[in-house]
Automatic annotation (TrEMBL):
This is Monosaccharide ABC transporter ATP-binding protein, CUT2 family. The keyword Transmembrane helix does not apply. The lineage of its organism: Bacteria, Pseudomonadati, Pseudomonadota, Alphaproteobacteria, Rhodobacterales. It comes from Tranquillimonas alkanivorans. One of its GO terms (molecular function) is ATP binding. It is found in: Cell membrane. It comes from the Bacteria. Keywords: ATP-binding, Cell membrane, Membrane, Nucleotide-binding, Repeat, Sugar transport, Translocase, Transport. GO terms for cellular component: plasma membrane.
Amino acid sequence: MTAKLVITGASKAFPGVQALDDVSLTLEAGSIHALLGENGAGKSTLIKIITGVHRPDSGTVLLDGEPMQFFGPHDALAHGISAVHQERNLIPRFSVAENIMLERLPTRAGLVDYGEVREAARRFMAPLGLEIDPDIPVRNLSVARMQLVEIAKALSLDARLLVLDEPTASITPHETETLFRLLRELRDKGVAILFVSHKLDEVFELCDSVTVLRDGRNACASRSLNGLDRSDVVRLMIGRDETAVRRTERTATGEPVLALRDVATDLGHRNIDLEVRAGEIVGLYGLVGAGRTELAKAVIGAAKVTSGEVQVGGRSARIDSVATALSRYRIGYVSEDRKHEGLILMHSVRRNVAVTVWRRIARALGWLPDRAERDAVTPYIERLQVRTPSLAQPVSLLSGGNQQKVSVAKWLAAQVRVLIVDEPTVGIDIQTKVYLHELIHELAASGTAILLISSDMPEMISLADRIVVMADFEVVGELDNTRDAADMSEAIMARIHKVAEVA
Protein backbone atom coordinates (compact mmCIF):
# COMPACT_ATOMS: atom_id res chain seq x y z
CA MET A 1 0.00 0.00 0.00
CA THR A 2 1.43 3.37 -1.04
CA ALA A 3 1.14 6.81 0.54
CA LYS A 4 1.10 10.41 -0.65
CA LEU A 5 1.74 13.18 1.85
CA VAL A 6 0.72 16.80 1.26
CA ILE A 7 1.51 19.51 3.80
CA THR A 8 0.12 22.99 3.16
CA GLY A 9 0.73 26.21 5.08
CA ALA A 10 2.28 24.55 8.13
CA SER A 11 3.46 26.90 10.89
CA LYS A 12 4.95 26.08 14.27
CA ALA A 13 6.24 28.40 17.00
CA PHE A 14 8.13 27.75 20.20
CA PRO A 15 8.89 30.32 22.92
CA GLY A 16 10.93 33.02 21.21
CA VAL A 17 11.27 31.09 17.94
CA GLN A 18 9.10 30.83 14.82
CA ALA A 19 10.38 27.44 13.68
CA LEU A 20 8.08 27.10 10.63
CA ASP A 21 6.16 29.79 8.79
CA ASP A 22 3.66 28.77 6.10
CA VAL A 23 5.63 25.74 4.87
CA SER A 24 4.37 23.37 2.18
CA LEU A 25 5.65 20.01 0.92
CA THR A 26 4.31 17.30 -1.38
CA LEU A 27 5.77 13.80 -1.12
CA GLU A 28 4.62 11.44 -3.85
CA ALA A 29 4.36 7.67 -3.48
CA GLY A 30 7.22 5.90 -5.24
CA SER A 31 9.61 8.84 -5.03
CA ILE A 32 12.67 9.91 -3.06
CA HIS A 33 12.27 13.54 -2.03
CA ALA A 34 15.12 15.61 -0.56
CA LEU A 35 14.44 18.00 2.31
CA LEU A 36 17.29 20.51 2.49
CA GLY A 37 18.28 23.57 4.47
CA GLU A 38 20.84 24.85 6.91
CA ASN A 39 20.72 23.78 10.55
CA GLY A 40 17.99 25.85 12.13
CA ALA A 41 16.06 26.18 8.84
CA GLY A 42 13.13 24.17 10.21
CA LYS A 43 13.80 20.68 8.82
CA SER A 44 13.70 18.91 12.19
CA THR A 45 10.46 20.64 13.16
CA LEU A 46 8.83 19.65 9.86
CA ILE A 47 9.99 16.04 10.33
CA LYS A 48 8.53 16.02 13.85
CA ILE A 49 5.19 17.19 12.47
CA ILE A 50 5.24 14.41 9.86
CA THR A 51 6.11 11.78 12.49
CA GLY A 52 3.61 12.96 15.12
CA VAL A 53 6.06 14.43 17.64
CA HIS A 54 4.63 17.94 17.14
CA ARG A 55 1.30 19.20 15.83
CA PRO A 56 1.36 22.31 13.62
CA ASP A 57 -0.11 25.52 15.00
CA SER A 58 -1.78 26.02 11.62
CA GLY A 59 -1.89 24.42 8.20
CA THR A 60 -3.04 21.03 6.96
CA VAL A 61 -1.51 17.55 6.72
CA LEU A 62 -3.11 15.23 4.17
CA LEU A 63 -2.24 11.54 3.86
CA ASP A 64 -3.74 10.00 0.73
CA GLY A 65 -6.09 12.96 0.59
CA GLU A 66 -7.37 12.52 4.14
CA PRO A 67 -6.74 15.24 6.79
CA MET A 68 -4.49 13.93 9.55
CA GLN A 69 -3.83 14.95 13.15
CA PHE A 70 -1.25 12.65 14.65
CA PHE A 71 -1.31 12.39 18.44
CA GLY A 72 2.18 10.99 18.79
CA PRO A 73 4.82 8.91 16.98
CA HIS A 74 2.90 5.67 17.53
CA ASP A 75 -0.14 7.23 15.86
CA ALA A 76 2.01 8.18 12.84
CA LEU A 77 3.52 4.68 12.85
CA ALA A 78 0.04 3.17 12.81
CA HIS A 79 -0.55 5.11 9.58
CA GLY A 80 2.60 3.65 8.01
CA ILE A 81 5.05 6.49 8.72
CA SER A 82 8.46 5.45 10.06
CA ALA A 83 11.59 7.51 10.65
CA VAL A 84 15.34 7.24 11.17
CA HIS A 85 16.17 10.31 13.23
CA GLN A 86 19.52 12.08 13.35
CA GLU A 87 19.36 11.69 17.14
CA ARG A 88 19.41 7.93 17.55
CA ASN A 89 16.28 6.50 19.12
CA LEU A 90 17.71 3.27 20.49
CA ILE A 91 17.65 1.81 24.01
CA PRO A 92 21.34 1.34 24.93
CA ARG A 93 20.90 -1.55 27.38
CA PHE A 94 18.66 -3.54 25.03
CA SER A 95 20.21 -5.89 22.48
CA VAL A 96 20.50 -5.13 18.78
CA ALA A 97 17.68 -7.61 18.05
CA GLU A 98 15.39 -6.17 20.73
CA ASN A 99 15.89 -2.64 19.40
CA ILE A 100 15.16 -3.66 15.80
CA MET A 101 12.00 -5.61 16.68
CA LEU A 102 10.83 -3.51 19.61
CA GLU A 103 7.65 -2.22 17.95
CA ARG A 104 6.40 -5.70 17.15
CA LEU A 105 8.12 -8.34 19.26
CA PRO A 106 7.09 -11.86 18.16
CA THR A 107 5.51 -13.93 20.92
CA ARG A 108 4.73 -17.56 21.63
CA ALA A 109 2.24 -18.62 24.30
CA GLY A 110 2.11 -15.03 25.53
CA LEU A 111 5.89 -14.75 25.99
CA VAL A 112 8.48 -13.03 23.81
CA ASP A 113 9.97 -15.55 21.38
CA TYR A 114 13.62 -14.48 21.56
CA GLY A 115 14.69 -17.05 18.99
CA GLU A 116 12.34 -15.47 16.46
CA VAL A 117 13.42 -11.97 17.59
CA ARG A 118 17.02 -12.81 16.70
CA GLU A 119 16.12 -14.44 13.38
CA ALA A 120 13.85 -11.58 12.35
CA ALA A 121 16.52 -9.03 13.29
CA ARG A 122 19.08 -10.86 11.16
CA ARG A 123 16.71 -10.67 8.16
CA PHE A 124 16.60 -6.88 8.40
CA MET A 125 20.31 -6.54 9.17
CA ALA A 126 21.43 -8.68 6.22
CA PRO A 127 20.47 -6.25 3.39
CA LEU A 128 22.56 -3.59 5.14
CA GLY A 129 25.59 -5.86 5.44
CA LEU A 130 25.34 -5.58 9.22
CA GLU A 131 27.05 -8.76 10.37
CA ILE A 132 27.06 -8.54 14.17
CA ASP A 133 25.72 -10.66 17.01
CA PRO A 134 22.06 -9.62 17.47
CA ASP A 135 22.40 -10.27 21.23
CA ILE A 136 25.05 -7.53 21.71
CA PRO A 137 23.76 -4.56 23.77
CA VAL A 138 23.47 -1.48 21.57
CA ARG A 139 25.62 0.53 24.00
CA ASN A 140 28.61 -1.62 22.97
CA LEU A 141 28.39 -0.62 19.30
CA SER A 142 30.21 2.15 17.45
CA VAL A 143 28.24 5.19 16.37
CA ALA A 144 28.22 3.93 12.77
CA ARG A 145 26.80 0.55 13.69
CA MET A 146 24.17 2.18 15.90
CA GLN A 147 23.11 4.14 12.82
CA LEU A 148 22.77 0.94 10.79
CA VAL A 149 20.71 -0.66 13.58
CA GLU A 150 18.43 2.39 13.50
CA ILE A 151 17.97 1.95 9.74
CA ALA A 152 17.31 -1.79 10.13
CA LYS A 153 14.68 -0.96 12.76
CA ALA A 154 12.90 1.40 10.35
CA LEU A 155 13.01 -1.18 7.55
CA SER A 156 11.47 -3.77 9.88
CA LEU A 157 8.29 -1.71 10.16
CA ASP A 158 7.35 -2.07 6.46
CA ALA A 159 6.57 1.65 6.31
CA ARG A 160 4.81 3.11 3.29
CA LEU A 161 6.32 6.52 4.09
CA LEU A 162 9.92 6.51 5.32
CA VAL A 163 11.70 9.57 6.73
CA LEU A 164 15.51 9.42 6.81
CA ASP A 165 17.30 12.24 8.66
CA GLU A 166 21.04 12.22 7.86
CA PRO A 167 21.14 8.41 7.50
CA THR A 168 24.65 8.36 6.00
CA ALA A 169 26.27 10.75 8.49
CA SER A 170 28.23 8.04 10.30
CA ILE A 171 28.51 5.18 7.81
CA THR A 172 31.11 4.27 5.21
CA PRO A 173 30.82 4.86 1.45
CA HIS A 174 30.32 1.11 0.93
CA GLU A 175 27.50 1.03 3.50
CA THR A 176 25.99 4.12 1.88
CA GLU A 177 26.01 2.39 -1.51
CA THR A 178 24.20 -0.60 0.02
CA LEU A 179 21.63 1.67 1.68
CA PHE A 180 20.95 3.56 -1.55
CA ARG A 181 20.33 0.31 -3.38
CA LEU A 182 17.74 -0.62 -0.76
CA LEU A 183 16.08 2.78 -0.92
CA ARG A 184 15.74 2.55 -4.69
CA GLU A 185 14.15 -0.88 -4.29
CA LEU A 186 11.68 0.54 -1.76
CA ARG A 187 10.91 3.47 -4.07
CA ASP A 188 10.22 1.07 -6.93
CA LYS A 189 7.76 -0.77 -4.66
CA GLY A 190 5.85 2.49 -4.13
CA VAL A 191 7.27 3.65 -0.80
CA ALA A 192 7.46 7.43 -0.37
CA ILE A 193 10.87 8.42 1.01
CA LEU A 194 11.84 11.78 2.55
CA PHE A 195 15.63 12.06 2.55
CA VAL A 196 17.47 14.69 4.62
CA SER A 197 21.19 15.16 4.02
CA HIS A 198 23.82 17.88 3.95
CA LYS A 199 25.76 15.85 1.37
CA LEU A 200 24.55 17.33 -1.90
CA ASP A 201 26.35 14.73 -4.01
CA GLU A 202 24.13 12.10 -2.36
CA VAL A 203 21.02 14.17 -2.98
CA PHE A 204 21.70 14.46 -6.71
CA GLU A 205 22.62 10.76 -6.93
CA LEU A 206 19.52 9.47 -5.15
CA CYS A 207 16.63 11.93 -5.13
CA ASP A 208 13.93 12.79 -7.64
CA SER A 209 12.65 16.06 -6.17
CA VAL A 210 13.48 18.60 -3.50
CA THR A 211 12.04 21.00 -0.94
CA VAL A 212 14.39 23.65 0.47
CA LEU A 213 13.77 25.52 3.71
CA ARG A 214 15.48 28.75 4.75
CA ASP A 215 14.76 30.50 8.05
CA GLY A 216 11.62 28.42 8.57
CA ARG A 217 10.07 29.20 5.18
CA ASN A 218 10.03 27.58 1.76
CA ALA A 219 12.93 28.66 -0.44
CA CYS A 220 11.42 26.18 -2.87
CA ALA A 221 8.56 23.74 -2.42
CA SER A 222 8.54 20.29 -3.98
CA ARG A 223 10.21 20.82 -7.33
CA SER A 224 12.04 18.37 -9.57
CA LEU A 225 15.81 18.18 -9.30
CA ASN A 226 15.99 18.11 -13.08
CA GLY A 227 17.51 21.36 -14.27
CA LEU A 228 19.07 22.18 -10.89
CA ASP A 229 22.77 21.91 -10.09
CA ARG A 230 24.73 22.17 -6.85
CA SER A 231 25.15 25.94 -7.05
CA ASP A 232 21.39 26.39 -7.57
CA VAL A 233 20.59 24.32 -4.48
CA VAL A 234 23.24 26.03 -2.33
CA ARG A 235 21.88 29.43 -3.37
CA LEU A 236 18.38 28.34 -2.33
CA MET A 237 19.68 27.05 1.02
CA ILE A 238 21.85 29.98 2.10
CA GLY A 239 20.72 32.82 -0.13
CA ARG A 240 24.08 33.22 -1.88
CA ASP A 241 26.82 31.24 -3.59
CA GLU A 242 28.94 28.74 -1.70
CA THR A 243 32.27 30.06 -0.44
CA ALA A 244 35.31 27.86 -0.76
CA VAL A 245 37.61 27.22 2.17
CA ARG A 246 40.67 29.44 2.20
CA ARG A 247 43.51 26.99 2.74
CA THR A 248 46.64 28.20 4.47
CA GLU A 249 49.77 26.29 3.52
CA ARG A 250 51.86 25.50 6.58
CA THR A 251 55.16 23.84 7.29
CA ALA A 252 55.23 22.29 10.76
CA THR A 253 58.69 22.00 12.27
CA GLY A 254 60.17 21.22 15.64
CA GLU A 255 59.54 18.45 18.11
CA PRO A 256 56.14 16.72 18.16
CA VAL A 257 53.66 18.18 20.63
CA LEU A 258 51.89 14.79 20.79
CA ALA A 259 53.65 11.51 20.06
CA LEU A 260 52.65 7.87 20.43
CA ARG A 261 55.54 5.40 20.59
CA ASP A 262 54.72 1.72 20.02
CA VAL A 263 51.42 2.16 21.89
CA ALA A 264 49.07 -0.70 22.69
CA THR A 265 45.73 -0.34 24.48
CA ASP A 266 43.26 -2.55 26.27
CA LEU A 267 40.88 -1.93 23.36
CA GLY A 268 43.15 -3.88 20.99
CA HIS A 269 45.52 -1.33 19.42
CA ARG A 270 49.02 -2.60 18.62
CA ASN A 271 52.31 -0.94 17.64
CA ILE A 272 50.85 2.53 17.17
CA ASP A 273 53.40 5.19 16.19
CA LEU A 274 52.11 8.68 15.51
CA GLU A 275 53.34 12.28 15.75
CA VAL A 276 51.59 15.66 15.62
CA ARG A 277 53.58 18.90 15.64
CA ALA A 278 52.51 22.41 16.57
CA GLY A 279 50.65 24.00 13.67
CA GLU A 280 50.04 20.65 11.96
CA ILE A 281 46.82 18.86 11.05
CA VAL A 282 47.34 15.10 11.04
CA GLY A 283 44.43 13.09 9.72
CA LEU A 284 43.41 9.63 10.94
CA TYR A 285 41.53 7.80 8.20
CA GLY A 286 40.08 4.32 8.20
CA LEU A 287 36.88 2.40 7.67
CA VAL A 288 34.36 1.84 10.45
CA GLY A 289 35.92 -0.44 13.05
CA ALA A 290 39.50 0.66 12.29
CA GLY A 291 39.97 1.88 15.87
CA ARG A 292 40.40 5.63 15.26
CA THR A 293 37.94 6.95 17.85
CA GLU A 294 39.07 4.30 20.30
CA LEU A 295 42.67 5.48 19.89
CA ALA A 296 41.63 9.06 20.55
CA LYS A 297 39.92 7.96 23.75
CA ALA A 298 43.07 6.18 24.87
CA VAL A 299 45.07 9.37 24.32
CA ILE A 300 42.71 11.38 26.56
CA GLY A 301 42.62 8.74 29.30
CA ALA A 302 39.17 7.31 28.58
CA ALA A 303 40.78 3.95 27.75
CA LYS A 304 43.95 2.34 29.08
CA VAL A 305 47.34 2.39 27.37
CA THR A 306 48.82 -1.01 28.23
CA SER A 307 52.28 -0.60 26.72
CA GLY A 308 54.38 1.88 24.81
CA GLU A 309 54.49 5.56 25.59
CA VAL A 310 52.39 8.69 25.09
CA GLN A 311 54.51 11.84 24.99
CA VAL A 312 53.35 15.44 25.24
CA GLY A 313 55.89 18.15 24.54
CA GLY A 314 58.66 15.56 24.35
CA ARG A 315 58.01 14.18 27.83
CA SER A 316 56.31 10.99 28.91
CA ALA A 317 52.67 11.63 29.84
CA ARG A 318 50.51 9.62 32.20
CA ILE A 319 46.93 10.45 31.29
CA ASP A 320 44.34 8.64 33.40
CA SER A 321 41.27 10.76 32.68
CA VAL A 322 39.83 13.46 30.44
CA ALA A 323 40.30 15.91 33.33
CA THR A 324 44.01 15.07 33.51
CA ALA A 325 44.37 15.38 29.74
CA LEU A 326 42.96 18.92 29.93
CA SER A 327 44.37 20.26 33.21
CA ARG A 328 47.88 18.81 33.06
CA TYR A 329 48.55 18.41 29.33
CA ARG A 330 46.11 20.84 27.66
CA ILE A 331 44.64 18.20 25.36
CA GLY A 332 41.04 18.65 24.20
CA TYR A 333 38.68 16.25 22.42
CA VAL A 334 35.71 17.19 20.23
CA SER A 335 33.68 13.97 20.34
CA GLU A 336 31.95 12.46 17.31
CA ASP A 337 28.95 11.86 19.59
CA ARG A 338 28.26 15.42 20.68
CA LYS A 339 24.85 14.68 22.18
CA HIS A 340 26.06 11.98 24.58
CA GLU A 341 29.73 12.80 25.12
CA GLY A 342 30.46 16.32 23.89
CA LEU A 343 27.64 18.24 25.56
CA ILE A 344 25.35 18.25 28.57
CA LEU A 345 22.11 18.84 26.72
CA MET A 346 20.01 19.97 29.69
CA HIS A 347 22.57 22.62 30.68
CA SER A 348 22.88 26.09 29.21
CA VAL A 349 25.19 27.23 26.44
CA ARG A 350 27.17 29.18 29.05
CA ARG A 351 27.71 26.17 31.31
CA ASN A 352 28.65 23.85 28.45
CA VAL A 353 31.39 26.19 27.23
CA ALA A 354 32.59 27.23 30.69
CA VAL A 355 33.02 23.69 32.00
CA THR A 356 36.58 23.52 30.64
CA VAL A 357 37.64 26.74 32.39
CA TRP A 358 35.90 26.41 35.76
CA ARG A 359 39.14 25.63 37.55
CA ARG A 360 40.73 28.74 36.06
CA ILE A 361 37.93 31.18 36.84
CA ALA A 362 36.75 29.80 40.21
CA ARG A 363 37.03 32.04 43.24
CA ALA A 364 37.61 31.01 46.84
CA LEU A 365 35.95 27.75 47.91
CA GLY A 366 35.13 26.96 44.28
CA TRP A 367 32.59 29.76 43.85
CA LEU A 368 31.80 30.47 40.18
CA PRO A 369 30.36 33.97 39.63
CA ASP A 370 27.92 34.15 36.72
CA ARG A 371 29.74 37.18 35.35
CA ALA A 372 33.06 35.35 35.29
CA GLU A 373 31.46 32.55 33.29
CA ARG A 374 29.87 35.01 30.86
CA ASP A 375 33.14 36.89 30.38
CA ALA A 376 35.01 33.62 29.74
CA VAL A 377 32.41 32.24 27.33
CA THR A 378 31.16 35.21 25.31
CA PRO A 379 34.25 35.78 23.10
CA TYR A 380 34.10 32.19 21.83
CA ILE A 381 30.34 32.17 21.30
CA GLU A 382 30.76 35.33 19.25
CA ARG A 383 33.79 34.01 17.38
CA LEU A 384 31.97 30.84 16.33
CA GLN A 385 28.76 32.77 15.58
CA VAL A 386 26.62 30.45 17.68
CA ARG A 387 22.96 31.21 17.00
CA THR A 388 21.30 31.24 20.41
CA PRO A 389 18.72 33.59 21.98
CA SER A 390 20.94 33.85 25.08
CA LEU A 391 23.76 32.14 26.93
CA ALA A 392 21.08 30.69 29.22
CA GLN A 393 19.48 28.71 26.36
CA PRO A 394 19.61 24.92 26.98
CA VAL A 395 21.93 23.34 24.42
CA SER A 396 19.24 20.74 23.64
CA LEU A 397 17.18 23.49 21.95
CA LEU A 398 19.93 24.50 19.51
CA SER A 399 20.27 23.14 15.99
CA GLY A 400 22.85 20.42 15.31
CA GLY A 401 25.29 22.86 13.73
CA ASN A 402 25.10 25.24 16.66
CA GLN A 403 25.51 22.36 19.11
CA GLN A 404 28.70 21.42 17.28
CA LYS A 405 29.93 25.00 17.54
CA VAL A 406 29.33 24.93 21.31
CA SER A 407 31.21 21.62 21.49
CA VAL A 408 34.19 23.28 19.78
CA ALA A 409 33.88 26.55 21.73
CA LYS A 410 34.54 24.90 25.08
CA TRP A 411 37.95 23.71 23.88
CA LEU A 412 38.80 27.08 22.37
CA ALA A 413 38.02 28.64 25.75
CA ALA A 414 40.36 26.13 27.39
CA GLN A 415 43.18 27.21 25.03
CA VAL A 416 44.36 23.65 24.48
CA ARG A 417 47.68 22.99 22.73
CA VAL A 418 46.48 19.67 21.26
CA LEU A 419 42.96 19.31 19.86
CA ILE A 420 41.57 15.96 18.74
CA VAL A 421 38.60 16.56 16.43
CA ASP A 422 36.45 13.49 15.75
CA GLU A 423 34.05 13.72 12.75
CA PRO A 424 33.72 17.52 13.07
CA THR A 425 31.05 18.08 10.42
CA VAL A 426 28.74 15.07 10.71
CA GLY A 427 25.13 16.18 10.29
CA ILE A 428 25.75 19.90 9.89
CA ASP A 429 24.90 22.29 7.08
CA ILE A 430 27.15 23.48 4.26
CA GLN A 431 27.74 26.96 5.63
CA THR A 432 28.68 25.69 9.11
CA LYS A 433 30.87 22.99 7.55
CA VAL A 434 32.82 25.59 5.58
CA TYR A 435 33.13 27.73 8.69
CA LEU A 436 34.46 24.84 10.82
CA HIS A 437 36.95 23.91 8.12
CA GLU A 438 38.24 27.49 8.14
CA LEU A 439 38.40 27.43 11.93
CA ILE A 440 40.47 24.23 11.96
CA HIS A 441 42.92 25.84 9.52
CA GLU A 442 43.08 28.97 11.68
CA LEU A 443 43.75 26.96 14.84
CA ALA A 444 46.60 25.14 13.13
CA ALA A 445 47.99 28.40 11.79
CA SER A 446 48.02 29.76 15.36
CA GLY A 447 50.12 26.80 16.53
CA THR A 448 47.57 24.27 17.78
CA ALA A 449 48.46 20.64 17.05
CA ILE A 450 45.37 18.99 15.56
CA LEU A 451 44.58 15.30 15.21
CA LEU A 452 41.63 15.01 12.81
CA ILE A 453 39.41 11.95 12.53
CA SER A 454 37.02 11.97 9.58
CA SER A 455 35.23 9.37 7.45
CA ASP A 456 34.62 12.06 4.81
CA MET A 457 37.43 11.53 2.30
CA PRO A 458 37.10 14.97 0.63
CA GLU A 459 37.13 16.60 4.07
CA MET A 460 40.25 14.67 5.05
CA ILE A 461 42.07 15.62 1.85
CA SER A 462 40.99 19.25 2.20
CA LEU A 463 42.19 19.66 5.78
CA ALA A 464 45.04 17.30 6.65
CA ASP A 465 48.75 17.95 6.10
CA ARG A 466 49.57 14.26 6.60
CA ILE A 467 47.18 11.31 6.65
CA VAL A 468 47.75 8.29 8.90
CA VAL A 469 45.77 5.27 7.69
CA MET A 470 44.38 2.77 10.19
CA ALA A 471 42.85 -0.68 9.81
CA ASP A 472 42.04 -3.30 12.42
CA PHE A 473 43.39 -1.12 15.27
CA GLU A 474 46.82 -0.71 13.65
CA VAL A 475 48.55 1.97 11.60
CA VAL A 476 48.92 0.59 8.07
CA GLY A 477 50.40 3.59 6.31
CA GLU A 478 51.20 7.29 6.38
CA LEU A 479 50.97 9.71 3.46
CA ASP A 480 51.93 13.30 2.84
CA ASN A 481 48.81 15.00 1.47
CA THR A 482 49.29 16.11 -2.14
CA ARG A 483 45.73 17.58 -2.23
CA ASP A 484 45.05 15.57 -5.38
CA ALA A 485 41.73 13.94 -4.48
CA ALA A 486 41.93 11.06 -6.96
CA ASP A 487 45.53 10.13 -6.17
CA MET A 488 45.10 10.43 -2.40
CA SER A 489 41.87 8.42 -2.36
CA GLU A 490 43.49 5.66 -4.38
CA ALA A 491 46.61 5.61 -2.18
CA ILE A 492 44.61 5.53 1.06
CA MET A 493 42.25 2.78 -0.05
CA ALA A 494 45.15 0.73 -1.46
CA ARG A 495 46.67 0.55 2.03
CA ILE A 496 43.35 -0.45 3.60
CA HIS A 497 42.62 -3.11 0.96
CA LYS A 498 46.15 -4.52 1.20
CA VAL A 499 45.52 -5.26 4.88
CA ALA A 500 42.12 -6.81 4.07
CA GLU A 501 43.71 -9.08 1.43
CA VAL A 502 46.37 -10.26 3.88
CA ALA A 503 43.70 -10.95 6.52
